[in-house]
Every structure is written in structure tokens, then in C-alpha cells.
């Protein structure tokens, strides 16, 4: 009898330990100087396995009744990710997940990350990416939705998403605003997710609470180049001017030391 209970007890202990690991999460948004930016940390076995900080806002279309109470008018709700949100997280070698809920779970954002290998000219290389987004919202919630027709919960999801692609072992960073389109279960309406000031790493975090080396998004790389290019061109122009002045000075000095030969042959008798 005791032998029969032991496997069941071990299973329960394992499940409890796994649940505890999943719930070891921290919302550090209060540390951000930007009130619109949130910071989330997922830890397992007292080790950070996922870190994410970003500012997020959803643009959600919804229908209301027109003044004639017959026709419908499409309005737009701007829903920011609120500070103090509840969160859950999961980590594994190749899959990670972050779940964020706010306003008594009227809104829930789920981010799914995937790490995989790709064949390149340099051989097999590992990358991670944001593979799926799911946003659940309740149009009966009165903070952002006003008199919605047929109020209730809807889910907006991404379709064949491959975003934030980053080499394994690095964090993704992008200060510029990015827009990701989602499709809602509410009559297939398009929902937009606006992300900015993003820093994310869902795998291979080497130090606790510390991001690894950043991989900047193309927009940030281009903006950085645009900022440094005038400086580089200015330095090159200054160097060209200095070289030109040096060449002119040397040429002038050499020509000044040369004997001037008179063009009038009658002056040759005075030479020597």
C-alpha cells in the first residue's frame, strides 16, 4: 500500500515544485523612471531565466450604437499596459512564456518565445524570436470601452509571427516604436500592439537580473548611424583640410628656397 502511494506522492511534490518555479516572478516596474515602461522578471531555482522591459499600448476597434440605435459606429480604445500588473512566467531550454494581466484580468497579454537553429553560410547558428502574441480583452470593462455593442471577452492573436529575432545568448534592444498587427475574434477586427523602449531576453541569461550583450534592432542601428555619420564626415573633412594646408605649406617652402632664373637673357651677366 505504501509502495503504491509513493509514486503519487512524488508526482505531487514534483508538480508543486514545478508550480512554485513558474510562480517565481517579479514586477519591477517601479524601478523604471518612465511611468509608461514596465519591467518583468521570471526566475526559476533562484536564477533569472527571463527578463523583459518595455512600454506597450493596444489600439482596439469596437462597435457602438449610432444615434438612431440601428446603425453601428466603430470607435477606438487606446489601452496602455498598466503598472502593477499581475504576471506569470515559464522557462525552458527552447520555449519561454510571459503572461501579464491587469485591471482584474480584464486584459491579459501573453508573449511566447522560441529558440531554434538556422543554417547559415557560417554553419548552424541559434536564434530566439517572439513567435506568438495573444491579447485577451473585455469590452464590458468601462475604463477604455464606452457602451460597446455585445460587450464581452475577445482574443486577438498574431499570425505567423517572427519578431525580435536575436542571436542566442544576447538580449534584444529597440528604443524605436514598433507596431505588431493582431487579428481579433471580434469580427476579425485588426488590433495593433505598439511596443517601444524594448529590452528582452527570454533565454541564456548569464547573470542574475542582468541583461546579456544587446542586439539592436535595424531602426536603432540606422538611427545610431545617422547620429554618428555627421561626426565622421566632419572628422574626415577636417583631416582633408589639415592635409591640404600641410601640402600647401611644404610646397610654398620648397618653391621659396629655389633660385629664381630670370626670363630676360640680358640679366644673365649679373648672375654669379
Automatic annotation (TrEMBL):
Keywords: Cell membrane, Cell projection, Cytoplasmic vesicle, Endosome, Glycoprotein, Membrane, Signal, Synapse, Transmembrane, Transmembrane helix
Membrane topology: Single-pass type I membrane protein
The keyword Glycoprotein is annotated on this UniProt entry: yes
Localisation per UniProt entry: Cell projection, Dendrite; Cell projection, Growth cone membrane; Cytoplasmic vesicle, Secretory vesicle, Synaptic vesicle membrane; Early endosome membrane
GO cellular component: dendrite; early endosome membrane; endoplasmic reticulum-Golgi intermediate compartment membrane; growth cone membrane; late endosome membrane; lysosomal membrane; recycling endosome; synaptic vesicle membrane
Residues of the signal peptide: 1-21
UniProt domain Lysosome-associated membrane glycoprotein 2-like luminal: residue ranges: 35-205
GO biological process, one term: establishment of protein localization to organelle
Cross-referenced InterPro entries: Lamp2-like_luminal, LAMP_CS, Lysosome-assoc_membr_glycop
UniProt key word Transferase: no
Transmembrane segments: 229-250
Role this protein plays: Plays a role in short-term synaptic plasticity in a subset of GABAergic neurons in the brain.
Family stated for the protein in its record: Belongs to the LAMP family.
Protein name: Lysosome-associated membrane glycoprotein 5
Organism: Otus sunia (Oriental scops-owl)
Amino acid at each position: 500500500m505504501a509502495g503504491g502511494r509513493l509514486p503519487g506522492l512524488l508526482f505531487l511534490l514534483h508538480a508543486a515544485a514545478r508550480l512554485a518555479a513558474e510562480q517565481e516572478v517579479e514586477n519591477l516596474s517601479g524601478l523604471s523612471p518612465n511611468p509608461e515602461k514596465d519591467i518583468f522578471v521570471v526566475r526559476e531555482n533562484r536564477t533569472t531565466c527571463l527578463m523583459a522591459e518595455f512600454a506597450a499600448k493596444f489600439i482596439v476597434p469596437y462597435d457602438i450604437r449610432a444615434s438612431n440605435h440601428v446603425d453601428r459606429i466603430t470607435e477606438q480604445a487606446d489601452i496602455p499596459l498598466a503598472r502593477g500588473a499581475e504576471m506569470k512566467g515559464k522557462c525552458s531550454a527552447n520555449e519561454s512564456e510571459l503572461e501579464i494581466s491587469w485591471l482584474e484580468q480584464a486584459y491579459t497579454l501573453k508573449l511566447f518565445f522560441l529558440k531554434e537553429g538556422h543554417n547559415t553560410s557560417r554553419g548552424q547558428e541559434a536564434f530566439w524570436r517572439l513567435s506568438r502574441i495573444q491579447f485577451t480583452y473585455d469590452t464590458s470593462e468601462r475604463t477604455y470601452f464606452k457602451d460597446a455593442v455585445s460587450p464581452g471577452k475577445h482574443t486577438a492573436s498574431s499570425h505567423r509571427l517572427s519578431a525580435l529575432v536575436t542571436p542566442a545568448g544576447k538580449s534584444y534592444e529597440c528604443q524605436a516604436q514598433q507596431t505588431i498587427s493582431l487579428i481579433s475574434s471580434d469580427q476579425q477586427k485588426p488590433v495593433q500592439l505598439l511596443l517601444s523602449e524594448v529590452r528582452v531576453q527570454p533565454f541564456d541569461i548569464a547573470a542574475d537580473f542582468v541583461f546579456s550583450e544587446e542586439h539592436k534592432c535595424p531602426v536603432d542601428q540606422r538611427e545610431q548611424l545617422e547620429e554618428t555619420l555627421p561626426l565622421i564626415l566632419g572628422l574626415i573633412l577636417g583631416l582633408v583640410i589639415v592635409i591640404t594646408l600641410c601640402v600647401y605649406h611644404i610646397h610654398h617652402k620648397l618653391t621659396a628656397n629655389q633660385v629664381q632664373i630670370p626670363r630676360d637673357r640680358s640679366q644673365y651677366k649679373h648672375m654669379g
